[in-house]
């Protein structure tokens, strides 16, 4: 039985790390979770994903989006052990410190399992889908195993949150081509690196990112937690995805008011 101790221990950030995040809108942090804790959550989350996954179509018959990953949401509502990770004060404080806000709420969690021989995750920005009034959002991307390059780790275009072109594109073949073309004429560094076991990345809602194909014979298992400023207000949705997110992840929230639904508790 894993104790909750590390999940509530402080992970002190250096001023240089906060400055790096502010400039680039992403950062990778070593040893956020120890290997024993990581293995424990990998087992529990994997079992829940296998239980809930209803994708039956063969990999080769799916769209680019369908080949990118199996995804399941808000696992914290379905398993108490998974909830202890999603509600971790250690993780939430990192998110709050990086964004330099007084506290964070949960937007939602999301398991992203890229199958063996699974395809790319095209270039995109997450906040395209979110009806949120400010950019004070950050996603913790938690690989549940060491993730070498051939497994398709997350890649970032450092500082690309400044680019407005491409923000209106959903994850698709179109977004991969259009955003890649736009990024090629900028000086933003394309960061492609493996992840060690226990290493976690944090990226903002508007920074462009992607992932390569999983060319191995093993599942690439990732859990994500999306945080927002605890004072975040709902904005009027500007696309169908944002309408869906409002109804699904912020039920009962009102435009112009702080998002304070039962699904959006303050975590730190």
TrEMBL record:
GO molecular function, one term: iron ion binding
Alphabetized SUPFAM superfamilies for the sequence: Clavaminate synthase-like
Keywords from the named record: Dioxygenase, Oxidoreductase
InterPro entries: Phytyl_CoA_dOase-like
Names of required cofactors: Fe(2+)
UniProt-recorded name of the protein: Ectoine hydroxylase-related dioxygenase, phytanoyl-CoA dioxygenase (PhyH) family
Organism annotation: Flaviramulus basaltis
Source lineage: Bacteria, Pseudomonadati, Bacteroidota, Flavobacteriia, Flavobacteriales
